[in-house]
Design a protein that fits this description.
- This protein has 177 residues and is an alpha+beta fold.
- It has a single domain, classed as Cyclic Phosphodiesterase, Chain: A (Alpha-Beta Complex).
- It is built from 5 helices and 9 strands.
- Helix 1 packs antiparallel against helix 5 and helix 3 packs antiparallel against helix 4.
- The longest helix has 14 residues.
- The radius of gyration is 16 Å and the shape is globular.
Length: 177
């Protein structure tokens, strides 16, 4: 939906391992969405008021950056993804933003629990089977080491997603794109 926004934790460390697979199996990659773990989607309409940006900055500023690893490959009926370990810090980020903005429950409240993940492929079983075999070869045996240092607010501008603002964890100021 045009003007829709999302809060994502970019995972640039995963790009060398999943970028080609995401371009092939996940339409969001072609729309400009980087490898990421969703913090809250959908968020609110664009443009996002300055008071909301300030509150986002305040909430994210309370969290310290953290390290995690992507090694476990998992699936849902139409989604293939990598699971971050630990996942609790991502759940805490989502819950904090949801508490600050209760009108925007994660995934519109469609799912009973928050399950952080980095989507690699979306589609039917046959497509996911193909993508899973490739993903298992692409991820090193020790997994992908990564760090969450910021959350990015992105918006759908019709044919692509674009960055609006970045919020550094542990800091109290945001940088605008």
């Amino acid at each position: 939906m045009i003007g829709e926004t999302a809060l994502i934790a970019p995972v640039p460390q995963a790009e060398p391992h999943v970028a080609d697979l995401r371009l092939r199996f996940d339409s969001r990659a072609a729309e400009g969405v980087p490898a990421h773990i969703t913090v809250l989607h959908p968020f609110g309409p664009h443009p996002v008021p300055a008071a909301v940006l300030n509150e986002l900055n305040r909430v994210f500023g309370r969290f310290d950056p953290f390290d995690f690893r992507l090694r476990e490959v998992a699936r849902w009926p139409e989604n293939l993804h990598l699971v971050p370990t630990p996942s609790d810090p991502f759940v805490a980020l989502t819950k904090a933003i949801w508490a600050a903005f209760p009108a925007y429950p994660p995934y519109e409240g469609r799912f009973p629990e928050i399950v952080p993940h980095l989507s690699v492929a979306q589609g039917r079983t046959v497509l996911l089977d193909e993508a899973e075999a490739l993903l298992r070869r692409a991820v090193p045996p020790t997994g992908i080491s990564a760090a969450c240092t910021e959350v990015t607010l992105i918006t759908n501008i019709g044919t692509a997603w674009e960055e609006i603002c970045r919020f550094r964890l542990g800091e109290s100021r945001a940088s605008r794109a």
